Amino acid sequence: MKKVLAIVSSPRKGGNSELLVDEFVKGAEKSGHTVEKVCLREKKIAPCLACEACLKNGGTCVQKDDMTEVLAKLMAADVIVLSTPVYYYSVCAQLKAMIDRTLPIGADGGKMKDKEFYFIATAADGVHAMKNTMNDLQGYVDCIPGSVVKGKVYGEAFAVGDIKGKAAMEEAYTFGKHC
Question: Above 90 in pLDDT, residue 166?
Fold first, then answer.
């Protein structure tokens, strides 16, 4: 069985991307995987300072916030689900801050490697609005040695709950079940 870490980056509790993550989690748990869901809106994660201290001191960030806990969870996971609402054809600020702060464990043979990723995005403007976002997320995974993207869920929705009953819900569940 795998250790699954599901990252919810939406600042909106119970938003459409979180509802899709919850379906992924249900599927993964049904298959016997260990799953932890982390909501970034509940964490204090400051933006990266680009000071590169973490690259010189063995991977410890000079900022003392909740990112230390998130880094440990990312390293321990076999499967990582990154979810985001789409803002201006890109990931939301909460997810971008988290991604940037993975520098101490990321590329160039870092401590995070060989992960399986799933992406979940939601946007009101349809799949075309999510393509740039998925490319942004793919760029991140490309920087993590040995890591692969196993699936992408495109959820077309705007108001809270709009995603319910749509095909993306079943797709998220199925990806979770087969991760």
Answer: yes
Q: Is 106 helix (H, G, I), strand (E, B) or coil?
A: coil
Maximal C-alpha separation, the chain: 49
Nearest-10 crossing angle of helices 16-30, 167-177 = 40
Per-position DSSP letters for 50-72, written without gaps between them: ---HHHHTTS--SS-STHHHHHH
HEC secondary structure over 126-144 = CHHHHHHHHHHHHHHHHCC
62-95 pLDDT per residue, tens: 999 999 999 999 999 999 999 999 999 999 999 9
What's residue 111's pLDDT?
85
**Order of strands, sheet of 148-156, starting from the edge strand that comes earlier in the sequence:** 34-39, 3-8, 79-85, 116-123, 148-156
Supply φ then ψ for residue 142, to 5 degrees: -60, -20
Count Cα atoms within 13 angstroms, Cβ side, for 124: 7
